[in-house]
Amino acid sequence: MKLLVIGIGDCGCRLASEFAQLDHTARAKRRVVIVSRAYALNNDQACLNSLPKAKTETLQPILIRGLMAGDGKSTESGANFMRQESDRVFSAMRLGGFFEADAFMLIAGAGGALGSGGVPVLAQILKERYVDKPVYGLIILPFDYELDDPQRVHNTAICLKSVDKVTDAAILIDGGGFGTGQHVTTVEHMASVNRDIAHTFYDLLCAGEMMVGKNMGTNVLDAGDIKQCLSGWSAIGVGRADFSESLLPWKKSQDFKEKGSATLKAVEAMSQALLHLSVDCKLENAGRSLYLLSVPARYANVDMVKMLGNRLRELAPNAEMREGSFYGSDNYAQVTVVVSELIYLERIKQFYDRAARLITASTSPPATGQIRDTRP
Ligand SMILES: Nc1nc2c(ncn2[C@@H]2O[C@H](COP(=O)(O)OP(=O)(O)O)[C@@H](O)[C@H]2O)c(=O)[nH]1
Ligand SMILES: [Mg+2]
To answer: Please, are residues 232 and 169 in contact by the beta-carbon 8 Å criterion?
Structure first.
């Protein structure tokens, strides 16, 4: 699948740049194109300057020069700003990469202002102009240590509400660190979190593009399948299990024992993927699901695929499942899982509740007899 990536705001720009790097890797290692173009939109020149220069022409930074009205900190001010600047933004993009792309992917941190407000505005415009291409949101939820900041919580709630209305699917990434709850302090740590986020999509985007003879597994999973799967709230995860002893290169077929242990590795990789889903969710709440297995051709066998399919069907019984496999890895099994059309996400409810509570707390006077805490 080829994506046209648009990252908005600081978080969005850094991730757009990671997707451009990912595309560079795909072109070099797998000879396929997975990002037709990546745009990094920001009103902050310093952020655009700090983006690592992708080795390809895929990334195009666009500076939005206008002034953000209002406080400049809320999702609302970001959305107004983007509405006012959208014509200039689209003319700067000059349609590069629009026609080759299978889908649009808009990326932002939900807790900020520009990206948080900008994603729904651009999504709406893209949906009106390109009716046949799906528009996906890749939304990064705030880190745990930001959850006491009323502005971040408010922005996140507003962003989630509007993204839900205008995108075909919204893939949520919790805490930017896959729910690890870690305090991301350094630029390097943030960069590695961003690299991990982009890498989650590597196999999924490559698989359909690598549909040439020797890479093809038993089931091909292409852009059409991904489009069929992605709908509404979604989560993605990748897991990997290394094959311990490598098969001797001249030994073509596996014996019974080897086959069994290779299958177990694939199952282990799927468990890891489910454990590392980008947002905490109950699998039985998913209306659609997908898994993609990547193994070296010499380890592949039919049981493996059957076993993974049965497992995911069992865990997500209400989901319409799509499956695929390809020979993309060296000495390990890697499984990508997507669960989509999630009807309920506790994390989203928490943000809505928290935002509502913060509003009530800021508007109601303290109850009589209650001692007001005046500590800073
Ligand atoms: N994963 C990740 N999250 C980030 C990054 N930068 C910011 N964030 C998150 O995104 C939120 C929005 O921040 P920012 O992108 O600066 O806002 P904007 O520039 O107004 O769109 C922050 O509260 C963080 O939670 C980043 O590089 N990676
Ligand atoms: Mg910013």
So the answer is: yes
Determine the atom of ligand 1 nearest the C-alpha atom of 118. Answer: 21
Q: Tell me if 176 CB under 6 Å of ligand 1.
A: yes
Cβ atoms of 27 and 33 closer than 8 Å: yes
Q: Which of 370, 366, 367, 311 is nearest to 337 (CA)?
A: 311
Same domain, 19 and 80: yes
Ligand 2 geometric centre to CA of 199 (Å) = 24
Ion ligand 2: residues, CB < 5 A = 9-10
CATH of the domain at 41: 3.40.50.1440
- The protein residue with its alpha carbon nearest to ligand 1, atom 8, reads 11
Q: What is the sign of the dihedral through the CA atoms of 54, 55, 60 and 63?
A: positive
Mutating to test ligand 1, I would choose from 44, 140, 180, 188 the residue with most ligand atoms within 8 A of its C-beta, which is: 140
Whose C-alpha lies nearest to ligand 1, atom 24?
142
334 and 352 in a common domain:
no
41 lines ligand 1 (CB under 6 A): no
Tokens of 3: 């994506």
Please check whether residues 336 and 350 belong to one and the same domain: no
Domain assignment present for 371: no
Digit-by-digit pLDDT tens for the chain (376 residues) are 999 999 999 999 999 999 999 999 999 999 999 999 999 999 999 999 999 876 668 999 999 998 888 888 999 999 999 999 999 999 998 767 889 999 999 999 999 999 999 999 999 999 999 999 999 999 999 988 888 899 999 999 999 999 999 999 999 999 644 445 566 668 888 899 999 999 999 999 999 898 766 666 668 899 999 999 999 999 999 999 998 765 555 555 556 667 778 899 999 999 999 999 999 999 999 999 999 999 988 888 888 999 999 999 999 999 999 999 988 888 899 999 999 999 999 999 999 999 998 877 776 654 443 434 434 3
State the distance from the centre of ligand 1 to the C-alpha of 151, rounded, in angstroms. Answer: 13
Helix axes 256-275, 302-315, angle to 10 degrees: 30
> Do 117 and 9 share a structural domain?
yes
Closest atom of ligand 1 to CA, residue 8? 21
Cα(9) to centroid of ligand 1, in Å?
7
Question: 295 and 275, same structural domain?
Answer: yes
Enclosing domain of residue 44: 3-199+346-356
In this structure, the answer to whether residues 59 and 173 fall within a common structural domain is yes
Q: Does 7 reside within a domain? A: yes
Taking the C-alpha atoms of residue 287 and residue 48, their distance in angstroms, rounded to an integer, is 38
Using the 8-state DSSP alphabet, how is residue 284 labeled? Answer: G
